[in-house]
Design a protein that fits this description.
This protein is an alpha+beta fold. 19% of the residues lie in helices and 27% in strands. The protein has helices spanning 12-19, 32-43, 80-100; strands at 23-26, 51-52, 71-74, 106-114, 120-123, 133-140, 153-156, 163-167, 174-178, 184-186, 193-201. Strands 1-9-6-11-4-3-2 form a seven-stranded antiparallel sheet, with helices on one face.
């Protein structure tokens, strides 16, 4: 793989989206080389490191294949490309705190592998006033994704009754939204679907964190 050069980013569009509607969709958040490097990093993980995703938190955490069937692996900065991505998100955190005074303290994220037919039912990433996750990010790593491949992210209005965004998981696209405000779900796809799901938090990270 070619060396990935970290570039300085202007996150004004993301800051404006979070300050306004609370959600934004940003194609081309990372370039094709970085997408390829992250995808290669995920592809070279030993299979046993990708484990069935859980719901709940702490002692109540459990797997439930009626709700979600994806597999995940937390990014801990083990490789250069992981460190590069985490550094970019640290820059975003700094800009959000400077401009919106969000008090974000940490960022946690994991690779997510949805194999053909996998899904994640409608859920919130945090309950209002009861969660430590403040801002959700989802970055997609899928080249040449077509509508016929399925696997859309559906984002609902606050009451969860109307779909406000249908997002194809196309390579380099970032979705960013307030964790307490937007129920969302992942539809089944006809091919493997790769992403990095992450959360900016207001306290120290706990890897197996909140989900419905």
């Amino acid at each position: 793989m070619n060396a990935i050069v970290r570039l300085e980013h202007d996150f004004t569009a993301i800051v404006d989206a979070i300050a306004g509607p609370g959600i934004g969709i940003f194609p081309g958040f990372i370039n094709a080389d970085m997408v390829a490097a992250l995808r290669h990093d995920l592809a070279t993980l030993p299979p046993w490191e990708l484990t069935p995703a859980a719901i709940g938190r702490a002692r109540l955490q459990q797997t439930n294949e009626q709700i979600r069937t994806d597999k995940t692996r937390w990014l801990e900065g083990d490789t250069p490309i992981q460190r590069c991505y985490l550094a970019q998100m640290a820059d975003l955190q700094l800009q959000l705190n400077r401009q919106l005074f969000m008090g974000l303290k940490d960022y946690e994220c994991h690779y997510a592998l949805y194999q053909a037919g996998d899904f994640y039912k409608k859920h919130l990433d945090a309950f209002r006033g009861k969660g430590n996750r403040r801002l959700t990010t989802v970055l997609y790593l899928n080249d040449d994704w077509q509508a016929a491949d399925g696997g859309e992210l559906l984002v609902y209005t606050a009451h969860g009754k109307a779909v406000m965004h249908r997002v194809l998981p196309q390579a380099g696209t970032l979705v960013c939204f307030l964790s307490e405000d937007f129920p969302h779900e992942v539809l089944p796809a006809t091919r493997n679907r790769l992403s990095i799901a992450g959360w900016f938090r207001i306290d120290d990270p706990v890897a197996p964190a909140i989900h419905l």
